[in-house]
């Protein structure tokens, strides 16, 4: 049973990773680096709706209970795939720093901070049924993203685009 769950989590993370890459591929123009970060975050937040919500549930379950359930190498496969996704986000942050859109800083730590913020927004979004204005995962996630970008040195005018 745990191997099946691990395989389903692996597929969910791979699907999310693929959707993020697809969201980035058509982007061009000025402020590309910040646009890419916003698109990656928006893609993650969009997984709270539709068919992707089931995948997000599997990913959230893995994050909420990261203990090893069985000593099978297959059961540990989702974690490296999640790290690979975070490394892609790290590359986006590094590109934004190199382009001068963000101040220099620890890109890997920033990628994890961004992921944690978005995951927190998604978790709070589960309370939307009680107060949709207060607990909108979309609104919370977008606000957290913009605050992170500003704290990392994005210009006010750039962070308001989007």
Structure explained in plain terms:
The protein is an all-alpha fold. The protein has one domain (2-154): Tetracycline Repressor, domain 2 (Orthogonal Bundle), CATH 1.10.357. 68% of the residues lie in helices and 0% in strands. The protein has 7 helices and no strands. The chain has helices at residues 2-24, 32-46, 52-64, 78-98, 107-125, 137-151, 156-159. The protein is globular, with a radius of gyration of 16 Å. The termini are far apart.
Q: What is the element layout, followed by pairings?
A:
Elements: H1 2-24, H2 32-46, H3 52-64, H4 78-98, H5 107-125, H6 137-151, H7 156-159
Helix pairs in contact: 1-2, 1-3, 1-4, 2-4, 2-6, 4-5, 5-6
Compact overview of the structure:
The chain has 162 residues and is an all-alpha fold.
Number of helices: 7
Total separate domains: 1
**First CA to last CA: what distance?**
43 Å
Q: Helicity level, as a percent range?
A: 55-70%
- The assigned structural class equals mainly alpha
Q: What do the pLDDT scores average to? A: 84
CATH class: Mainly Alpha
The total beta strand count reads 0
CATH architecture: Orthogonal Bundle
Please give a handful of descriptors for the protein shown:
162 residues; single chain; 68% helix; mainly alpha
């Amino acid at each position: 049973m745990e191997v099946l769950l691990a395989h389903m989590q692996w597929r969910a993370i791979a699907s999310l990773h693929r959707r993020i890459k697809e969201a980035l591929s058509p982007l061009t123009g000025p402020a590309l680096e910040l646009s890419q970060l916003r698109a990656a975050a928006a893609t993650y937040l969009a997984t709270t709706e539709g068919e992707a919500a089931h995948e997000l549930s599997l990913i959230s379950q893995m994050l909420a209970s990261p203990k090893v359930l069985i000593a099978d190498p297959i059961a540990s496969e989702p974690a490296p795939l999640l790290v690979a996704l975070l490394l892609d986000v790290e590359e986006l942050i590094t590109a934004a720093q190199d382009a001068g859109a963000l101040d220099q800083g620890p890109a890997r730590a920033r990628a994890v901070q961004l992921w944690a913020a978005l995951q927190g927004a998604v978790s709070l979004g589960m309370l939307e049924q009680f107060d949709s204005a207060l607990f909108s995962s979309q609104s919370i996630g977008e606000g957290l993203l913009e605050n992170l970008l500003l704290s990392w040195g994005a210009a006010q005018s750039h962070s308001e685009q989007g």
